[in-house]
Amino acid sequence: MRYHERMAADETALPRIEEELERSRQSAGLLLDSLAQKLGIDRAAHNARNRIERAASYVHSHSMKDLATGIGRFVRQRPGPSLCIAVAAGYLVGRALRPR
Q1: What angle do CA 8, 29, 70 make, to 5 degrees?
Q2: φ, ψ dihedrals at 30, nearest 5°
Q3: Which of 31, 35, 58, 76 sits at a 20 to 30 Å CA gap from 52?
């Protein structure tokens, strides 16, 4: 069974993903607001915050199978940006899990 099929089968993961995405959205929003004020780039920060909120809304309103299908389609259509996103996500997860 492929990875996205296993993920689609595990619908119990969706609430955990939604919760983590919501926490990330809130943290990113606060960080972006702070940076925007310091750097005077309110418009860019506002756009980034809107994108994060749309992503959270999308995850909340779709099933795991829909999410896995959408991610698979995105990766096939845009392999370069997908690789960059995967590297960045791996880095952030590694930093979060590193003992202090």
Answers
A1: 25
A2: -65, -40
A3: 76
